[in-house]
Write a structure and sequence with these properties.
Radius of gyration: 27 Å
Order of helices and strands: HEEEEEEEEEHH
Strand content: 25-35%
Oligomer: single chain
Largest sheet: 5 strands, antiparallel
Shape: globular
Number of strands: 9
Number of helices: 3
Helix content: 25-40%
Distance between the termini: 59 Å
Length: about 210
C-alpha cells in the first residue's frame, strides 16, 4: 500500500511537470507570434552625398557629415510613440571639403537627395517587401546657393504599441536650475551607491524613479 502511494505520487509529479512545461511552451510560442510576426517596422532609406540631419517627432534619428554617397537605412520605431500622424524634419548641409574638416560654402546644383520612409515587418524569420509611406526628393536647383536647406513634412504610421511622448514631459526650463541640479546629483548618487554596493533591489528602484 505504501509502495503504491509512492508510485502514485511520482506519477502525479511527472504529469504536473509535463503540464507546466506544455503550458510554458505554448505561452512562449503565442508570445513570439504576437510580438514579432507582422509587427510594423518603420525605417528611413536615404541616398545622397550631402550631409544631413533628420528628425522624427523632434528626435534626431539620422545624421551624416561626409561625402560618401551610399544608400543608408535607419530604424525609426523608437521615434514613433503611437499611431497617427508623424512629423519629419530634414536639414541638408553642403558637401564637406576635400579634407573633410568643414562644409563648403553652398550646396551645388548637381547635388542630389532622396529619402523614403519604408514600412515592413517580420514574417517567418524574414522581412517582407517594404511599402513606401513617405517620399522626399530634392528638386533640381531648389537648394542652389544655400549652405543649409530645411524641409518639413508629415507621414502616417500604424504601430501596435503606445509609448509616452517626450513632448508631453515636464518643461524643466521653468524650474530652479540650481535646485534641479541638486536633486539630480542626489538621485544619481543613490544609483551609483546601490550599484557599487551590489544592492540590486535598491538599484532597480532608483533607476525606475
Amino acid at each position: 500500500s505504501c509502495f503504491i502511494q509512492i508510485k502514485m505520487r511520482i506519477l502525479y509529479l511527472i504529469v504536473l511537470v509535463f503540464i507546466l512545461s506544455f503550458n510554458k511552451n505554448t505561452a512562449q510560442d503565442k508570445h513570439t507570434t504576437i510580438n514579432f510576426n507582422y509587427e510594423p517596422i518603420y525605417r528611413l532609406k536615404i541616398a545622397t552625398s550631402l550631409s544631413y540631419n533628420i528628425k522624427i517627432n523632434g528626435v534626431t534619428t539620422a545624421t551624416k557629415n561626409q561625402n560618401a554617397g551610399d544608400t543608408r537605412w535607419f530604424l525609426i520605431n523608437n521615434c514613433i510613440p503611437t499611431s497617427g500622424e508623424q512629423n519629419i524634419e530634414i536639414t541638408l548641409l553642403s558637401r564637406m571639403s576635400n579634407k573633410g574638416t568643414e562644409h563648403l560654402e553652398t550646396i551645388d546644383e548637381k547635388d542630389e537627395f532622396a529619402l523614403e520612409v519604408e514600412k515592413t515587418s517580420w514574417k517567418d524569420g524574414s522581412l517582407v517587401e517594404p511599402s513606401i509611406v513617405y517620399t522626399f526628393v530634392l528638386n533640381e536647383g531648389a537648394a542652389v546657393n544655400k549652405k543649409v536647406y530645411l524641409h518639413k513634412g508629415t507621414f502616417k504610421a500604424e504601430v501596435s504599441y503606445q509609448l509616452i511622448d517626450w513632448r508631453d514631459g515636464k518643461d524643466l526650463s521653468k524650474m530652479d536650475s540650481l535646485k534641479l541640479k541638486e536633486e539630480l546629483l542626489k538621485s544619481y548618487g543613490k544609483i551609483k551607491s546601490s550599484f557599487e554596493n551590489q544592492q540590486g533591489q535598491q538599484f532597480v528602484k532608483a533607476v525606475e524613479k
